[in-house]
Amino acid sequence: MDRIEALRAGIESLVLIEVAKAMGHSVSELIELLQLGRHSPVGAVMKGNRLTTEQSERILAFLRLVEAVDDMVRATGQDKAFDAPRWIGDWLASPCPALGGRHPAALTDTLEGFRVLERLLSQMQSGAYA
Question: Which intervals hold domain Antitoxin Xre/MbcA/ParS-like toxin-binding (predicted)?
């Protein structure tokens, strides 16, 4: 319930700066990738406002993708460092054969789209991707 209340209240817009930095992208690029621009979060960041519930849910869904990729890589036993936020940011912006050549970012406008991306990542890990 705490998470739901936090989403309803809106994530602090300054989180966008930290997420974008972790991805190796600008805030503007993050806003474009996650299709957050409907309510002008750039202005919200500049004013220190909170994001809308919808924008907050997308940020949380994105962070779940990062966590899923990080967990997948750790499960392989790889010892070298892996930058999951950067990998996800690059993957979202690249054409994906499993999506008919569309960019995964094209699905970030809905929570169902994020669920499709989570399943796709799971399929990639299991080898069922092709």
Answer: 82-127
